[in-house]
Amino acid sequence: MADQTSWEAIYASHRLELLRYVHRLTRDVHLAEDIVQDAFLRLWRETRTVDSPRSWLYRVCTNMVRDQ
35, 26 in Cβ contact below 8 A? Predict the structure, then answer.
């Protein structure tokens, strides 16, 4: 997942799905966008240690919503 192409593919394939999920939980489109953006930033920082980006992103987003 370290190269730019992989990162862009992960972002493109999961962003809208995550936005819909987080928006359903928060009922706030702006908060959902902030949470998803922050989750992707965290993923980018943890690139070498994440085996399943989709699962990791969902877990991080869910935890961030709970923390709100």
Answer: yes
Name, in order, each residue with C-beta under 8 angstroms of 31's C-beta and a sequence gap of 6 or more. Answer: 22, 68
pLDDT, tens digit, 9 for 90 and up, residues 46-60: 877 778 899 999 999
**pLDDT category, 6, cuts 50, 70, 90?**
confident
Three-state secondary structure call for residue 28: coil
Give one word for 27, left, alpha or beta, with left for phi > 0 and alpha for psi -120 to 50: left
Q: What 3-state class would DSSP assign to 64?
A: helix
